[in-house]
Amino acid sequence: MATTGPQPQAPSQAYAQFPGAYGQPFQTYSQYGAAQPQANQQIIRAEPTETKGWKITRSALHGAGIVVAILCIALSFSFKGTTTEVFTAWYSSPAALIAFVWSLSELIVRAVQKQKAGIHPGAHVGMCLLIWLAASFVAGIHSTFAAISHYGDRSSNCDYPYDSSTQDYQYYNCTLPFNGRFGQWIALTVFSWLLWLIYFILFIGSCIDTHKRNQAKRQRVVIVNPGSFWGQVKDGSNSPRALRSLKLLHLAFPCRIGIQPSLRTQCPRSFTAKRARSLRG
């Protein structure tokens, strides 16, 4: 009876379990069709939107600015005479006139564009700054004259020649301050301060709108290049993250991962057998 020794077993193929991972890990995308770049790509930047409340508030402030500017101009030219107070009242009209023209232009532009957009907020910053600075200067001068006339020496509005018989000064031809229109002067002072307040609020709002617009322009738009495509591997996994992980592991540990067929001979046989048993189990 012929006895035969143990038959040599064929070496187990540790790489047959996962043909997709070990057969051809990096397949060119030419056989699957390269992804065509999108033609005529346009970058659309989202313009900062204005809230409805701020639109209504800004339009109301411009309307109030027009009314207050008209009142300031009318009160300024209502004073007649050649006194210092009268000339000072006339000096307040340029600031009110600029405010009237600017607010009227803003409302006209918004009416033409159906409240979608008005004048550029950067222009509002410059013009509102000019108006509230001029209005604050004029209102301060008016307040100073009103305080001096009300609490100061009213003899400045009189003629007081020296009388030799009494050896004293006598007051003659005394007139009331501001030609008897002190109430109008107070009204002009109040409206000047109100004009300052309106355009100071508009200045702050325009600064905020300009900041939002500048930030929207500085936003980075990232366009992902669709040209790179590894294709679908044989095991059905086409996750780009998984493919990148396999590539990094293959470059770092080609023997231990065992995904490159040309490096099988460089791996120890004990490791290959252990790897095969772990894959079967």
Structure in words:
This protein is mainly alpha-helical and 281 residues long. The protein folds into two domains: 52-216, no CATH class; 241-281, no CATH class. The chain is 55% helix and 1% strand. It is built from nine helices and two strands. The protein has a two-stranded antiparallel sheet. β1 and β2 (168-169) form a beta hairpin. α2 (52-76) packs antiparallel against α6 (182-218) and α4 runs antiparallel to α5. It is elongated, with a radius of gyration of 44 Å. The model is unreliable at 28-35 and 227-234 (pLDDT under 50). The chain crosses the membrane at residues 60-79, 91-109, 129-151, 185-208. Keywords: Membrane, Transmembrane, Transmembrane helix. This is MARVEL domain-containing protein.
Tell me the Rg in angstroms: 44 Å
Instruction: Describe the strand arrangement of the main beta sheet, using strand numbers.
Output: 1-2
Assembly state: single chain
Beta strand count: 2
Major beta sheet summary: 2 strands, antiparallel
Q: What count of domains describes the coordinates?
A: 2
Shape: elongated
Distance linking N and C termini: 39 Å
Query: Portion of residues in helices?
Result: 40-55%
The residue-averaged pLDDT reads 69
Unreliable residue runs: 28-35, 227-234
Q: Give the structural class.
A: mainly alpha
H and E order: HHHHHEEHHHH
The number of distinct helices, counting runs of at least 4 residues, comes to 9
* Percentage of residues in DSSP E strands: under 5%
